[in-house]
Amino acid sequence: MTLPPDGPAATVEPAQAADIPAMVALNNLFAPDGLTLTRSPAFVAGHLTDYQVIRGADGRVIGQVALDDYSPSLVELVSLAVAPDHQGRGLGQVLVVAAEALARRRGYPELFAISLAEALFLRMGFIESHIAVYPEKIARYRGISRSELSIGRKFCFAKRLIVPAAAAH
Question: What is the value of pTM for the model shown?
């Protein structure tokens, strides 16, 4: 996926193993403020096929997003991050579109996200939801850190990706 001509010179593409250090650094830049969960190189390597990146004109990773699956019917948009010097240019929106497209190709009927970026997700057609709707997420948070269960200022968003066959008729 290439960005619109009025945007920065960048492309969205699957992440590569050589990107792992840059992706970990970009993601973890936002973890102290609670904007992302800390990711280790092992986590990113283990989920590499779930990550997509945007590269700047110089080839460096300036944005990323990943899918984290819970079941064949549920996937979460995670690790959405754009380098500070490239924010405000619509790259977050481009990454959300790319994550949605990947989730659709994989056949997920729904995508959810936990985020502070309320305006972005609502603009992208997500609706406000609540973490209680996703017991899979709650169970995983309990395994990582109970403090993550109190989303605090974060919001939960959901988007249906596939219209059930009965509703399509």
Answer: 0.83
Neighbouring-strand partners of residue 12:
54
Residue found under tokens 């754009």: 82
Question: Per residue of the chain (169 residues), what is the pLDDT tens digit?
Answer: 444 444 544 579 999 999 999 999 999 999 998 888 899 999 999 999 999 999 998 899 999 999 999 888 889 999 999 999 999 999 999 999 999 999 999 999 999 998 888 999 999 999 999 888 887 777 776 665 544 445 455 789 999 997 555 444 3
Answer for the pair 154, 120: CB distance below 8 angstroms, yes or no.
no
Residues 6+ apart with CB under 8 A from 22: 60, 61
159, β-bridge pairs: 111
The encoded tokens of residue 42 equal: 């092992």
CATH assignment of 11-163? 3.40.630.30
Query: Is the CB of residue 8 less than 8 Å from the CB of residue 56?
Result: yes
Residues 6+ apart with CB under 8 A from 40: 24
Q: Is residue 15 a contact partner of residue 23, using CB atoms and an 8 Å limit?
A: yes
